[in-house]
Amino acid sequence: MRFSPLLPALILCACGATWAQSPTYGVGRTPTPEEMRAEDITISPDGKNLPPGKGTAKEGAAIYAQKCAMCHGANGSGGLAPMLIKPETPVKSSTPCLEPCIGPGSVMALHAPYATVIWDYINRGMPFRQEGSLKPAEVYSLTAFLLYKNGVIQEEEVLAQTTLPQVKMPNRDGYAIPDWKPGMPRPFPNGH
Amino acid sequence: MNSKRNPASKKPADSTKASRRRFLTTGAAAAALGAVRTATGQTSPPEAKSLTDQVAYGDRSHYVTSLRVPVDGRPSPDEFGMTFHVLAPLQDLVGIITPSSLHFIGTHRGSIVPDIDPQQHRLMIHGMVDRPLEFSMDDLKRFPSVSRVHFIECLGNHSKPEDKTVQETHGLTSCSEWTGVLLSVLLKECGVQNRASWVVSEGSEEVKGAGSIRLAKAMDDCIVAYGQNGEPIRPQQGFPLRLVVPGFEGIYNTKWLRRIKVVDRYYMTYNDYGHISKDEEVAALTFQWGPKSVITFPSGGQKLPAPGIYQLTGLAWSGGGAVRRVEVSTNGGHTWKDAEIRGAVHPKAHTRFGMDWKWDGGECVLQSRCTDELGQVQPSRAQLAAFFKVPPDHYKTHGVQGSDNMIQPWRVAGDGSVHNAI
């Protein structure tokens, strides 16, 4: 089937007009704002949905030693779990690299374009077996610790709801967001 | 912060132990049920499951021993009870459907498969919608269903020179009939707001793995699936609910789906950020799978007993749509011949191809090449190297940018043994 170059745009316009229509089935329950807040742990790169709280690298160091070091290594590398602090001399991890691959080239603090990515992941997924148990201040502190140890921020910087999204990450401009539309080929040379 | 309300996402405090126990029990059960090969090489029937049990839930023949294996030999489950990446035995499969019990497994960081009570499970859709809604499993079945055949393939499905079999080179892809509600139907029910452009989906496992897709994809063909191959989705595949994102890489197909948030930008979650690239072309290669195919017979590790006629067969698929053509070369790519499509052709699904092939007893290199309905053609290693301006042999020793859909050569040696020839 051949598409006119305008067709995708027309389809998008048509859909845009209908997406906001009234419900067809009337099935499902409306959650309360409190229920949605309780469930919503998704943090925007611009900091939207970050809870109040604050922390520093120094506070984070103590929490790291207590709750993270046993899997990630005392110095953030060489443990069973992915590398968190890029070592000055390479350390061989005991775990093979699987997607998403966390090796020296993709340590979160260096590879993530936004500090919120780190905050969001610690908050939702750590520590192993006690996921979701960290208080916001602890997550801010751990994020500050990892950023400090990777040379992204100063030791005394306070990370909080407003300052965390402002951190200038080393890989802030290191990503492209490719377009995608139905029926779009990949950007690869085609033909024999 | 995490779900306090959703008992379905809770784990028993001792579930590491429980899961180890389960593993031990399952291991013992597998040994009991599988065919037992004795020291003399004789296969003896296993201890029989009672006839009543067999009638209630049938097993495969004890002569059939096809199994999944972990990627790179990494223990799975590991000592923490976490499941990592496990490869489907493509060399043993016929047709296009992967049996659910042999479907490859990939998990976000390694996960403990959650034990979710479907009666308690809920899916919340919220964010930039006019009407946030929460659905029970029963609610979801009150919407019109679709059943569609789609492959799911992990980005880690790379063929490496040290991989010996097609299970090792290509086993992180599988194909199922998925049944559920189109995500577009649910999003329309919620009323997506005009400024929305992305959705973030989230699972119920301990790490609550989350991934971002463009709203255009969410409104196109994504399925909120509760069925796989005629039964409820199996726990390792996301029971009771999984987001199926046809043609996109595996990680976007969120298992144990609990929440979808409609947003106005790319959220770049942990699952997303592993894929990011500054190079727009590379970044685009990590969304949608390109045309891909592989010969599953003859393939690495197999042996042809003697010269003569064989059925060369394999699988082809593309994230871009339906497979339009599969060509096969039996002389190292000098000439190509169209293979037959044997069976149904579904968009973004494994497609079976085959041809009569007479092995003359000489050494030869077999390969297949897929063309999809968009006209995209599966590339060779040399073509990909030229595209990314690296030496022609680069991808023999380096991982490929984005997803690996390169042509897979198998070398048939004079003794009939078959070897990975990348």
List the helices and strands and how they pair.
The complex is a heterodimer of chains A (192) and B (422).
Chain A: H1 7-18, H2 33-39, E1 54-55, H3 57-67, H4 69-72, H5 108-111, H6 115-125, H7 136-149, E2 159-160
Antiparallel strand pairs in A: 1-2
Helix pairs in contact in A: 3-7, 6-7
Chain B: H1 15-33, E1 36-37, E2 43-44, H2 51-56, E3 69-70, E4 86-87, E5 122-127, E6 133-136, H3 137-140, E7 146-153, H4 166-170, E8 173-182, H5 183-190, E9 198-203, E10 210-214, H6 215-218, E11 223-228, E12 231-232, E13 242-244, E14 257-263, H7 270-273, H8 280-285, E15 292-297, E16 308-317, E17 323-329, E18 337-338, E19 340-341, E20 351-359, E21 364-372, H9 381-387, H10 394-397, E22 410-412, E23 418-420
Parallel strand pairs in B: 5-14
Antiparallel strand pairs in B: 1-2, 3-4, 5-6, 7-8, 8-11, 9-10, 9-14, 11-12, 11-13, 15-16, 16-20, 17-18, 17-21, 19-20, 21-22, 22-23
Give your account of this protein's structure.
The complex is a heterodimer of chains A (192) and B (422). Chain A is an all-alpha fold and 192 residues long. Chain A has helices spanning 7-18, 33-39, 57-67, 69-72, 108-111, 115-125, 136-149; strands at 54-55, 159-160. In chain A, 33% of the residues lie in helices and 2% in strands. With 422 residues, chain B is an alpha+beta fold. Helix content of chain B is 16%, strand content 27%. A five-stranded mixed beta sheet of chain B has the order 6-5-14-9-10. In chain B, strands 7, 8, 11, 12 and 13 form a five-stranded antiparallel beta sheet that branches. In chain B, a hairpin with a 5-residue loop joins strand 22 (410-412) and strand 23 (418-420). The N and C termini of chain B lie far apart (49 Å). The relative contact order of chain B is 0.12.
